[in-house]
């Protein structure tokens, strides 16, 4: 729709007493920087970063980690255990032992840890790399055995720095 001469004159009359703002009170908005085009190398780099995970994140993604939390253990305490925030007071390495021998040694270790009032211990069971198609035998047995002890409040696979899925932190009940 086009303005007619009457519309223009009506507008001028309506605006007759309007004065322009002084220029020193005008607010200029800073100009936004122009977006720059990403190079292919930048795009590849960003894609690579988004697809990489820390070793501990990878550990949690595999489903190979061991986790157990009894009803007596708070979620907060269990989170701290998983993060490795408790001081490890003793540890044992069951690598290369037969199942029967590992069970004996583990029973003795837990009993001694309880006698010494240890709160957190580490058990290295291995990842079962040489177990063949049966999978990690000692790891599965340690998982089963620890769940049977009333004195075990919880356990969790360790971060890579302490053995990853080849070891667990165990939180024991205080005597």
Give an account of the 3D structure.
It contains six helices and five strands; from the N terminus they run αααβαβαβαββ. It has a domain of about 110 residues: Ribosomal Protein S8, Chain: A, domain 1 (2-Layer Sandwich). The protein is an alpha+beta fold and about 180 residues long. It is rod-shaped, with a radius of gyration of 34 Å.
Q: Helix segment count?
A: 6
Secondary-structure element series? HHHEHEHEHEE
Q: Give the termini separation.
A: 90 Å
Helix content: 25-40%
Q: Could you tell me the mean pLDDT?
A: 81
The CATH architecture of the domain at 67-172: 2-Layer Sandwich
Low-confidence stretches: 53-62
Which descriptor suits the 3D outline? rod-shaped
User: What is the name of the CATH class of the domain at 67-172?
Assistant: Alpha Beta
Q: Structural class of the secondary elements? A: alpha+beta
Q: Might you state the CATH topology name of the domain at 67-172?
A: Ribosomal Protein S8, Chain: A, domain 1
How many E-type strands?
5
Q: Using the CA coordinates, give the radius of gyration.
A: 34 Å
Oligomer: single chain
Question: In what range is the share of β-strand residues?
Answer: 5-15%
Question: Sheet bearing the most strands, described?
Answer: 5 strands, mixed
Order of strands, widest sheet: 1-4-5-3-2
């Amino acid at each position: 729709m086009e303005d007619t001469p009457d519309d223009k004159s009506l507008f001028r009359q309506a605006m007759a007493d309007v004065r322009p703002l002084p220029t020193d009170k005008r607010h200029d908005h800073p100009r936004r920087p122009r977006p720059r085009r990403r190079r292919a190398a930048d795009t590849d780099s960003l894609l690579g970063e988004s697809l990489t995970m820390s070793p501990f994140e990878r550990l949690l993604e595999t489903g190979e980690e061991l986790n157990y939390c009894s009803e007596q253990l708070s979620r907060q305490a269990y989170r701290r255990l998983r993060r490795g925030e408790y001081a490890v007071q003793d540890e044992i390495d069951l690598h290369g032992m037969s199942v029967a021998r590992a069970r004996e040694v583990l029973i003795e270790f837990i009993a001694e840890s309880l006698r010494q009032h240890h709160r957190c211990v580490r058990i290295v069971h291995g990842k079962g790399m040489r177990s063949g198609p049966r999978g990690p035998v000692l790891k599965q047995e340690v998982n089963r055995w620890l769940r049977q002890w009333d004195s075990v409040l919880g356990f969790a696979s360790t971060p890579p720095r302490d053995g990853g899925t080849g070891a667990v932190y165990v939180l024991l009940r205080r005597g």
